[in-house]
């Protein structure tokens, strides 16, 4: 077993449980900090188990050939006590539970990725589930990340499964809502720290619903710069909260809000 205090740079073959136990600010932590430091602190001690997370874990395990072990629950749904107990036992043992019919769905999803002319090659010839540890040069904050797929040539591939569209012409909203730019910037900073060169970061996006269309997208430089600015803000806030032991939630007061820009654009299109 690798001592977590000695983990540094790119680490291969580190079990998922050891990665999760290792200290460090992750990309998920960055997102929670940007909501509020109080959100980050709460999430550290409150585990959230959701079926959507289970499906995502299983998709990763099957397509990447690494990650959590899969436990197929041989029930049609979770309405019975026996099915729920099997699911909870699987989670407690560190497995990703999935119903039989969902498992069959995942196999079809995996085939869609492997057969895609761009996604398939991107997810071969490299290393899956690669751990990454580094110290932020400006604050000294310990950071970490878990790369879905790493090519030593300097390419990071991130696998996303979504219940929304994977259409590259319409995926900008989804990517922003879920903070893909923040995750990419966080991981790219870690790889650059470890390797001395800035990597490419590519998303393979897979639709959960049949017929399971796949797309491959890459965020442009402006988008990545926005993500890096967010990561900088979150990392600085984290360092301050650690130093002061103060983890504030949302600011007090009555706040005036305006409609988002996409709503304004939608109205303009309707009028036109």
Automatic annotation (TrEMBL):
The cross-references to Gene3D superfamilies, in alphabetical order and at most eight, read: 3.90.320.10
- InterPro entries (alphabetical): PDDEXK-like_dom_sf (IPR011604), Put_RecE_PDDEXK-like_dom (IPR024432)
Concerning Pfam families, the annotation shows: DUF3799
Question: What range(s) does the Putative exodeoxyribonuclease 8 PDDEXK-like domain occupy?
Answer: 26-250
Identification of the protein by name:
Putative exodeoxyribonuclease 8 PDDEXK-like domain-containing protein
């Amino acid at each position: 077993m690798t001592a977590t205090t000695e983990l540094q740079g790119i680490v291969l073959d580190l079990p998922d449980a050891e990665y999760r136990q290792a200290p460090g600010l992750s990309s998920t932590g960055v997102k929670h900090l940007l909501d509020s430091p109080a959100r980050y602190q709460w999430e550290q001690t409150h585990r959230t188990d959701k079926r959507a997370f289970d499906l995502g874990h299983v998709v990763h395990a099957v397509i990447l050939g690494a990650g959590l072990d899969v436990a197929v629950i041989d029930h049609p749904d979770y309405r019975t006590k026996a099915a729920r107990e099997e699911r909870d036992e699987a989670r407690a043992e560190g497995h990703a539970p999935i119903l039989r019919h969902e498992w069959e769905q995942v196999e079809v999803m995996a085939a869609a990725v492997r057969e895609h002319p761009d996604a398939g090659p991107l997810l071969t010839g490299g290393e899956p589930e690669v751990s990454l540890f580094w110290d932020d040069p400006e604050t000294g904050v310990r950071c970490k990340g878990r790369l879905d797929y790493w090519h030593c040539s300097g390419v990071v591939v991130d696998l996303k499964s979504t219940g929304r569209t994977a259409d590259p012409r319409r995926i900008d909203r989804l990517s922003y809502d879920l903070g893909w730019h923040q995750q990419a910037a966080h991981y790219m900073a870690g790889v650059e720290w470890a390797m001395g060169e800035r990597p490419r970061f590519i998303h393979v996006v897979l639709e959960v619903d049949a017929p399971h269309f796949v797309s491959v997208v890459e965020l442009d430089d402006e988008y990545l710069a926005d993500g890096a600015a967010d990561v900088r803000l979150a990392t600085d806030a984290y360092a301050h909260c650690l130093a002061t032991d103060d983890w504030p939630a949302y600011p007090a007061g009555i706040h005036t809000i305006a409609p988002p820009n996409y709503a304004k654009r939608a109205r303009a299109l309707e009028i036109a």
